[in-house]
Design goal:
2 domains; Glutaredoxin; 10 helices; Glutathione S-transferase Yfyf (Class Pi), Chain A, domain 2; 4 strands; 8% strand; alpha+beta
Amino acid sequence: MLTLCGFPISNYYNKVKMALLEKGLAFEEERVGTGSTDPAILQETPLGKVPFIRTPQGALCESQVIMDYLDDAFPEHSLRPADAYAAAKVRELITFIEWHLEIPARELYGHAFFNRPASESTQERVRKTLDKNIPALKKLLKLSPYAAGETFTQADCAAFVSLPLIGMTTKTVYGEDLLISHGIDYKPYMKLIGERASAQKVVADRKASTAKT
């Protein structure tokens, strides 16, 4: 049995959870906060980050490592194209979404959602980064109808949980959704993915968890 560890508010946790649901794999969930100092937890995720997953062979951390493990270990209903180049393009897209957009935008989450204002210099620096990186993502993002093209892939698990965060954050901090401003009309895409059972489960569990905090 697989055990997904983390919490349902985390977009990276939900990325992996969505993949598990899409693949139809049996799994359990265990709530673990980020930044744990528990020695047992640090044996499984040495930086105390979530998500991590327990497998019959041992634990794995880092969301994309987990995603690739799931498709390698359970190739039925793969979320990664069989063609090597197409699979690399999916991974490329995930890298752009997460490392070049979500990670920079994350510096503003405290400001946008938790009443912890970011300095003007931080806001300006992040804005400059996103103004450069969002047009770069636009060159890769297909939305035809899925993130990487005609087939639902790992990239959709990443896009569904991260694009709205980037949009909401920039709307709150800058007064405009920078994804929309740079020509990425992701709202119809979100509606499409939101009709999937996996997405509905992830969203429902996230809302239920948020209501408890």
